[in-house]
Write a structure and sequence with these properties.
heterodimer, A: about 325 residues, mainly alpha, 2 domains, two-stranded antiparallel sheet, 14 helices, globular, B: about 240 residues, 11 helices, transmembrane (chain B), DUF969 (chain B), transmembrane helix (chain B), membrane (chain B)
């Protein structure tokens, strides 16, 4: 293929590397060397993930965690544009500013839908492993060039601005990847099996209503532990849905599937383990409480979970 | 025994220790308890970390968003909204929720997202609407508005995307049922998601309506009582 997923990671790594140089040089940061090292190591794992043997990547990840744990990751100064400066430029550019911002979603959608099977010669244009990701990467590059032209900025400014945002997110930027790693370790240590055994023990097999309640709550809680409903479904479905709901009570598997996945998503809304949906946005939006997004989502999640239980019960009954 | 890792996570998050440290310790502990050698655990760490690089895709959006913010994109988003009299924070987020949910149901997952849409556009629009209505908005309420913006993105995405047949979740479940010798039909699975999807939209838009009322109660009164209050001109 011409544009591979690995290429997008390389771009991410280069952006990170450039940012880390400014962190190393930032005299306003009391821990500039350790902070710089954190972003430098992280960028290397993105850039060379395919090249460096996994054991050494693992060591690098642990060093990054140590830097954060020992308070080595601090913020610096970013030479932000003053409010007047920003306002003056905004007045000049007006709604043109929206163009690069809107190019990202539009080009990603167009790219991932229309170019997905396009071939140049014998080569596939976009990596079939994850065309959306590649389309997003290409869309961002086109948007960066457009934005630099529009705002008459240099790549240097683009890097400095990226560093401002990257350091605003801070350690949370690594959390989703690390949680996914934890999920892998949980799976290979057999946590899923233990949880489904516990759930299977508490289940009253004769009452349809309580089976539905335990199944849906189980989906939500298991998702909260793993941070991912996809990990919960096979475990809960094998433990409860197939033997009890489908085989014993004759439920329609399509209905079970649709509703149970949504019950899992209710769990996703309530857990810090789903960091890329709940914790990273809190960092990205400068929220003091990292759990603020979760706090806002919990009431809706509980209402919807109750609705799913009732809906599933009446559909099977 | 392997549940010790889960317990560590819960305790660590409850004590508000740094999440990176909690997750790493829980991972190492779980691996050791399950009898994996340390070198093997670290290798798994590295392997899974590399496989899941796609989760950090937001980095590729940073240069664009950073540059545009430097030129006042967020102010422009707020400014645009300030011209619409009927705009409130809750209404803007309800419209975004609807667009996000329908978009995801049509397979257009990438029209939203926290770094590329919520931070530069949706959150400033909702904040801008509140500032036009109430004047200066205290930081506490601003944070509440931004948290709601992030939540609307998540809720719209999650409960919309499973209506789309070719989405990962549907394919995963179809594959799982196939393996277990049970007939399942992706189209029917997607359709049975619709009742919940509609319910979510109703519940969450009611909550956003109540959120507007709460902002009215907290900030509206102040605006009325203070004679020196003048609606903040966002274009200034």
């Amino acid at each position: 293929m011409i544009f591979s997923v690995e290429l997008v990671y390389i771009i991410m790594g280069i952006i990170g590397l450039c940012c880390s140089i400014y962190t190393f040089l930032d005299k306003a940061n009391p821990r500039r060397l350790l902070s710089g090292l954190f972003y430098f190591l992280y960028s290397l794992t993105l850039l060379l993930g395919k090249v460096i043997p996994p054991f050494y990547i693992g060591i690098m990840v642990i060093i990054m965690v140590l830097i954060v744990g020992l308070g080595g990751l601090k913020k610096g100064q970013y030479g932000e544009a003053s409010a007047e400066h920003r306002e003056e430029r905004r007045k000049r550019l007006g709604n043109l500013l929206f163009i690069p911002a809107l190019l990202i979603p539009i080009l990603t959608v167009v790219g991932s839908k229309l170019l997905v099977n396009v071939k140049l010669g014998s080569l596939q244009l976009l990596d079939p492993a994850n065309p959306t990701l590649v389309a997003l990467g290409i869309a961002c590059i086109i948007a960066i060039i457009t934005a630099m032209g529009l705002t008459k900025s240099t790549p240097k400014t683009a890097v400095k601005e990226s560093r401002r945002l990257l350091e605003a997110i801070g350690w949370a930027v690594v959390l989703p990847q690390l949680l996914a790693t934890l999920g892998t370790i949980f799976t290979s240590a057999g946590v899923g099996k233990v949880v489904s055994d516990v759930v299977a023990k508490v289940i009253p097999e004769t009452s349809l209503f309580w089976v539905v309640v335990v199944f849906c709550l189980g989906m939500a809680i298991f998702t909260m532990i793993m941070g991912n409903a996809f990990a919960a479904f096979p475990v809960m479905a094998a433990g409860i849905a197939i033997p009890l709901l489908i085989k014993q009570f004759g439920a329609n598997p399509n209905q079970i599937a649709a509703i149970s996945m949504f019950a899992g998503y209710c769990g996703t809304l309530m857990t810090p383990m789903a960091a890329n949906f709940n914790i990273v946005p809190a960092a990205l939006l400068d929220l003091k409480d990292k759990n603020h997004v979760i706090r806002v989502q919990v009431p809706t999640a509980l209402f919807v979970l109750a609705f799913n239980i009732i809906l599933m019960y009446f559909l099977i009954k | 025994m392997v549940l010790i890792g889960v317990a560590l996570i819960i305790i660590g998050f409850a004590l508000r220790l740094n999440s990176l440290v909690v997750v790493t310790v829980a991972g190492l502990a779980t691996g050791l308890i399950a009898g994996m050698p340390l070198k093997e655990i670290i290798t798994q760490f590295g392997e899974a970390f590399t496989t899941n690089r796609y989760m950090s895709i937001l980095i590729v959006t940073l240069p664009v968003i950073g540059l545009l913010e430097r030129s006042g994109l967020q102010n422009q988003a707020g400014h645009l909204v300030s011209k619409i009299k009927a705009a409130t924070a809750g209404r803007i987020l309800t419209i975004y929720l609807l667009i996000r949910e329908i978009g995801a149901a049509l397979g257009l997952n990438s029209i939203g997202g926290h770094p590329q849409t919520v931070r530069p556009l949706i959150a400033p629009m909702a904040e801008g609407a509140a500032e036009t209505k109430y004047g200066e908005v205290p930081e506490e309420e601003k944070e509440e508005i931004r948290a709601h913006a992030a939540a609307a993105d998540n809720i719209g995405l999650f409960f919309g995307e499973d209506i789309f047949v070719a989405v990962g979740a549907i394919l995963l479940m179809k594959g799982f049922f196939d393996q277990n010798g049970i007939d399942a039909d992706p189209i029917s699975m997607a359709l049975w998601g619709i009742p919940t999807a509609i319910f979510v939209f109703i519940v969450h838009s009611i909550r956003l309506y109540l959120f507007d009322k709460k902002l009215d109660r907290k900030l509206g009164k102040r605006a009325k009582n203070d004679p020196s209050f003048s609606k903040k001109d966002v274009s200034k």
